[in-house]
Amino acid sequence: MSLDYYDLLGLKRDCLPDEIARAYRTLSLKWHPKLSKEDAKTAFHHFSQISESFEVLSDRKFLLNLIFTFLIAVKRAFFDKYGEKLLKEGFFNEGLIEGGYQFGGNPEQIFIEFFEKDNPFAKIYDNDGREMFGSMFGSAFGGQNFPGLPPVKDLIIEVECTLNELYSGCMKEVKYMKTLLNNDGRTTRDEMVTRIIDIKSGYDNCSQIIIKGEGNESNGKKPSDLIFKVKEVKHQDFERKGNDLIFTAKVNLIQALCSETVRIITLDGRKLLIGMDEIIGPKTLKKIAGEGMPIYKDEEAGKMCKGNLYIKFDIEFPEVLDQEAKEAVIELLKNS
Predict the structure, then answer these.
(1) 238-335 belongs to which homologous superfamily?
(2) 246 three-state secondary structure
(3) Which CATH architecture has domain 155-232?
(4) Least CB-packed of 42, 62, 87, 233 within 10 Å?
(5) pLDDT tens digit string along 117-139?
(6) pLDDT tens for residues 76-120?
């Protein structure tokens, strides 16, 4: 169907030039791909139609010489009489209008020329990337409460790390999906990205690596931040409590009664032999100072401090004792 330029701008056919300008101002801000709440493809379609309608009806900066009944008519007058189809096809086969009117297809240029110094995107960001609408939008467009562009959501990537990795630190390769702008500056694509990140010794579940402006991209908006959030994977032997570590040693009843030395392989592969100076019971708790998790803040300050290691005990009792064994145990306890 043929386009009705008046209908697209919400105007009557006897509208005045300032009414055309006001309609274009309102609708171009509504449908500009950098301001519209719709998807970029839909917004650009409407933005282009609005720009084409404005170019024809406002007769911007140039005239099309159309000869009809010995009169010179402008684009608007020709459209009023013959409509969009003949305007674009051309009414004559010879002469000045062969081929008819063709929209240049650059609605952005029309937008910039219309607003000139008040072009919203000339001042949309300051040097720090902060949005700046304020009085500019208030005075030029009557929009003191103009909401501005909604920010692009930060790209948050969860990075699983073993307790060993968090103890010693490591370089970790992370793959994630990121939204990037295409070359047209309007549409986007999702792309798999690989990045190497530095996991510092002592990081925990509260640790984040924030890379400014390296997150998702979107039309007309400042790129979001890229945030890597550490997620600690449960360890089979150690439990972490802040900067401390808890190790549960499994011993049998004989080992407990004999206060047998506890052997531990640390998270960085060292072997610890922990001597016990008491009979081990279910409530026994052994503290080893400085053998917990590295403290990240202290490491940054140039110190190597660690939390503590606590040893708890899981005593395995025999399920059955024969009479002779029972008597031996009783005799042993009596003597002790």
Answers:
(1) Urease metallochaperone UreE, N-terminal domain (2.60.260.20)
(2) strand
(3) Sandwich (2.60)
(4) 62
(5) 555 554 443 334 444 444 334 33
(6) 676 777 777 776 666 544 444 445 566 666 787 777 777 655 555
